[in-house]
Amino acid sequence: MIVIGGGAAGLLCAGFAAREGCAVTILDRNTRPARKVMITGKGRCNVTNNCAPDDFIKNVRTNGRFLYSAVNAFAPQDAMAFFEGLGVPLKTERGNRVFPASDKAVDIVDAMTRFAKDAGAKFLLGERAVAVERQDGRVSGVRLESGELLPAGAAVIATGGRSYPLTGSDGDGYRMAKALGHTIVPPRPSLVPVICRESFCAELMGLSLKNVTLTLKNQKGKAVYSELGEMLFTHFGVSGPLVLSASAYMKDAPESYRFAIDLKPGLSEQQLDARLLRDFAEYQNRDFDNALDKLLPRTLIPVVVRLSGIPGGTKVHSVTKEQRKKLAGLIKSFPLTPKALRPIDEAVITAGGVSVREVDPRTMRSKLVPGLYFAGEVLDVDAFTGGYNLQIAYSTAFLAARGICAEE
Known about the structure:
About 30% of the residues lie in helices and about 25% in strands. The chain has helices spanning about 10-20, 35-40, 55-60, 70-75, 75-85, 105-120, 170-180, 200-205, 240-245, 270-280, 300-310, 320-330, 390-405, and strands at about 1-5, 25-30, 50, 60, 90-95, 95-100, 120-125, 130-135, 140-145, 150, 155, 185-190, 195, 210-215, 225-235, 235-240, 260, 335, 340, 350-355, 370-375, 380-385.
């Protein structure tokens, strides 16, 4: 068998199959496997999410039911035991997110690569696959860009999606699958930074907000996402973990949604008003725009002052109760207006891909082409942030390997 793609799905699929006695070759266009895994989780690698399979499925954004067999066959706890068995200690952080204890993604990459090699898989790196060939209707080999044909009785397309194309995920898998008759659900960005209309975002570029609550509301004003965490202002809008998660809920027309940031989620409006009164009493002879240092990040203060409508030169002792109430409301619900999502090249995950209607969920085998299998992000499945998407790669890889070995 030939596994096209040396990412998380490809390495584990190859290793599991080789361990069962299959003759496996991993084909990857890069000279080093799993380049995308190296940059996940800001270089820390959010390995998986330490939750039960049923809870896991609830966090799959697209086609969760399709993954039921996969996630139960190789659950998050199986993945944790797998990596720790390879000598990589793990730790669980907020939100059940699992990371290597070292905080180094390279430890996960090295462990997966070593696993595949030790199991007996061969590596063919720096070579690009352009087509899966058939003979008498079933897989017969993989054609390289050089024109060479590598014979194989089975092929696994594990090429990833279209996000981070410099790591090798540029849509090759979609093209190969489509040439074999598979339907491709149009790829679109998921878990991606958001462009905002407000010009002050550029003014705040580089400002990181921690322990804030970001709420996303739809055009009816209903909150569709709300979570405590961290986010970042950029020259175009906002990014960071909270924003990436929220973007997955923006199913259509990003401009129809609204963001609200609670800058002080630990305080009720009444408690915040009391805090303002204390600060204003301490700074009663200062101008308003010089009286918020203890409450807000320095770079955010000029923007909040402008949005509050209170002239910056107003003496603090002159700020009225109504003005103070408006200021508290602004701090508890700082507004941002999404304009568009950033390009798919910047997305953490690609939504869309090979239609799961044409893939057997128990084996990851193509329903159209005997000997063809899929694993990982190339499929039309995607989940929220928190380690879920890497776990999808492991679980689908496990089923594909098991399906091929059973077929052989």
